[in-house]
Amino acid sequence: MGKQASAKVCVTGGAGYIGSWLVKKLLEKGYTVHATLRNLDDQLKVGLLKSLAGADTRLVLFQADIYKPYEFRYAIQGCEFVFHVATPQQTAGSSHSSQEIVEAAISGVRSIAESCIESQSVKRLIYTASVLASSPLTKDGFHLKSCVNESNWTPSDIIFTHGFEYMRVFSLFHSNSFHFQLPKTSPNDRINCCEAYTISKTLAEKEALSYNENPGDDKLLEVVTLACGLVGGETLLPYVPLSVEVMFSQLIGKPQTFEGLELMEEVMGSVPLVHIEDVCDAHIFCMEKPSMRGRFLCAAANPTIREMATYFRENESQYQVPEEFMGGEKKGIAFDSSKLVKMGFEYKYDKKKILDDSVNCGRRLGSISLN
Ligand SMILES: NC(=O)c1ccc[n+]([C@@H]2O[C@H](COP(=O)([O-])OP(=O)(O)OC[C@H]3O[C@@H](n4cnc5c(N)ncnc54)[C@H](OP(=O)(O)O)[C@@H]3O)[C@@H](O)[C@H]2O)c1
Question: In 55-173, at which residue ranges do the beta strands (DSSP E only) sit?
Answer without folding.
Answer: 59-63, 81-84, 124-130, 147-148
